[in-house]
Amino acid sequence: MFESEREPELVPEPEIVCVDCGGRCFLLTPPREDGVWYPGDIVAYRCADCLDRWDLVLPDAQDERGD
Ligand SMILES: [Zn+2]
What we know:
67 residues; mainly beta; 0% helix
């Protein structure tokens, strides 16, 4: 069955900017065994400066509409 169900490559940023201190937050969450990420996956980051933890939800890639 060929529904339009193929997943685009979805990869979380390896590093983000800390919302609190502007420092660098590094990805804590390892990928699945097959290295695939899905929309709705929760990835955690740890700030190297203030040690805050940030949990982000991977966005749904089908979110592009409105043309
Ligand atoms: Zn920080």
